[in-house]
Structures are given as C-alpha cells and as structure tokens.
Design brief:
It is a single chain. The chain is α+β, with helices and mostly antiparallel strands. It has one domain: Ybab, Chain: A (2-Layer Sandwich), CATH 3.30.1310.10. Strands 1-2-3 form a 3-stranded antiparallel β-sheet. A 3-stranded antiparallel β-sheet has the order 4-5-6. A hairpin with a 5-residue loop joins strand 4 and strand 5. Helix 1 packs antiparallel against helix 4, helix 1 packs antiparallel against helix 8 and helix 5 runs antiparallel to helix 8. It is elongated, with a radius of gyration of 23 Å. About 10% of the residues have low confidence. It comes from Kibdelosporangium philippinense. This is YbaB/EbfC DNA-binding family protein.
Length: 242
C-alpha cells in the first residue's frame, strides 16, 4: 500500500469515526417523551423515547367531537402531531448542542484540510476482495450526506396487534405508528375508558409482534454496519492491497 493510499485511509478512519460519533450524539438527544392530540381534542397520544406510542387518552365526550368512523383517523392525527412535537424538540436540542455546526464542518468544501471529506469518499477506488473499498466509501458518503434525516416517514414492517375483541388493530414499524383501524359500529357503543383499554391492548400486542420480528437474525445495517466494515478493512492492510 502506497504512502498516499495510507494517508487516505487514515483520513477515512477519522471520517468514519466522526460520522459514527455524530449519529450516536444525535440519537442521545432524542426526547424522552412527546405528546400530541388530534384537532378535535378527542384523542391524545404520548410517545416514549423510542418514538413509539406509550399511552392513549380518549376524551369523555369523544363522540360529540368526532364520529365513530373518524376515530382511527383521529388516532393517526394525534400521532402525527406528537411526532412533529418530538422532532421540533429534538431539533432544538441538537441546535443547542452545536450538532449541526459539527456536521457542516465535516460536510464542508472537500479541500485537503484536516477534518474535511477524504478523497476516498469523493470517488471510488479500485475494487479489492472481499468487497470493493469504493463501494464502502460511496455508502459512507451517502450516509453522511443524509446524516440529519432522522425522521423518515415510518414504513410498516408487518408488526400489528388487536384488542381482545378484534375491533381495533394497530400496526407499528420500528419508528412509529403506521395505521389504526377501528370498527366504527363497535366504537359507537364504547365509552372513552373502553376505547382506551382496547387501544392499550392492541398496542401491547403490536409491540410484542414488533419485538418478535426484531429478534430474528438480521444483517448489520446502517451506519453501524458501514463503520464496522470500514474498520475491518483499515485494520487489515492485506485487504487493501491489489
């Protein structure tokens, strides 16, 4: 390995460590709790530190504020308000910590100054076994280019649960509530307490389903995977040789 290549990979090592540190710092500033209500005030949701619903509150006069057919939509609206509150709080915390400034420092003009994006991250290099280092570099660059995109719209990964009656179904992804379906004819006969109890049962079942799915063996993904892969290459020079 040439001296020039050694310098570039030393830069890459520092760059990957910085990226990992920034992502970890961002996660550490996530709000411990957030809340939101639908515009009618019929439904209120509190989110936990993971961004998933932790509890529901239904107003005693909910059926005077919304129709039974609109109940599921009110739950989703309350969740969206809570997510917005979570992200606003998160953004303020990151700003106060100077996190964005640190991101901009590393994402600045790609000059040959310490702390800037190393050359290996600006263009691919020759392929090497077992995996082309250029691919790793490109993936890292893409990850850093979207380092502040921490609030992607939740996508369903199949986790769902129902209450004991089967009339309310909640679906979750690892990042939030993705749907809430309610039998409107059944809902019309329920009190606020009964609806809260049913929502709690469905949420518990959905979280259990999500937990089971997350325990299945999965390949390392995201920044952690890229960081580990880059470190493995950097610590084994033989892999970097042609």
């Amino acid at each position: 390995m040439t001296d020039e290549l050694a310098v570039q990979f030393a830069q890459m090592q520092k760059y990957t460590a910085t990226l990992h540190s920034l992502m970890t710092a961002a996660q550490s500033h996530a709000p411990r709790q957030s809340a939101g209500a639908d515009k009618s005030g019929a439904v209120r949701i509190t989110l936990g530190p993971d961004g998933l619903p932790a509890s529901f509150r239904v107003d005693n006069d909910w059926d005077r504020k919304i129709t039974p057919a609109a109940f599921g939509g009110a739950v989703m609206e309350a969740f969206q308000v809570a997510i917005n509150d979570r992200m606003e709080t998160w953004t303020r915390a990151l700003a106060e910590d100077g996190w964005r400034d640190r991101v901009d420092q590393v994402k600045g003009p790609a000059t040959a100054t310490e702390g800037r994006i190393p050359a290996a991250f600006r263009k691919p290099v020759e392929e090497v076994n077992p995996r082309p280092i250029g691919d790793i570099a490109e993936d890292m660059f893409k990850a850093f280019d979207t380092v502040d995109a921490l609030a992607a719209v939740p996508k369903s990964d199949g986790a769902s649960g129902t209450d004991r009656t089967g009339k309310i179904t909640i679906s979750l992804s690892s990042s939030g509530l993705t749907s809430c379906t309610v039998d409107e004819h059944w809902a019309a006969r329920q009190t606020a307490a009964q609806l809260m109890n049913a929502l709690s049962q469905a949420l518990t079942a959905a979280k259990e389903d999500l937990s089971r799915k997350s325990q299945k063996p999965q390949p390392m993904s995201g920044v952690d995977r890229l960081f580990a892969e880059a470190m493995a290459l950097l610590h084994d020079p033989r892999r970097l040789a042609d």
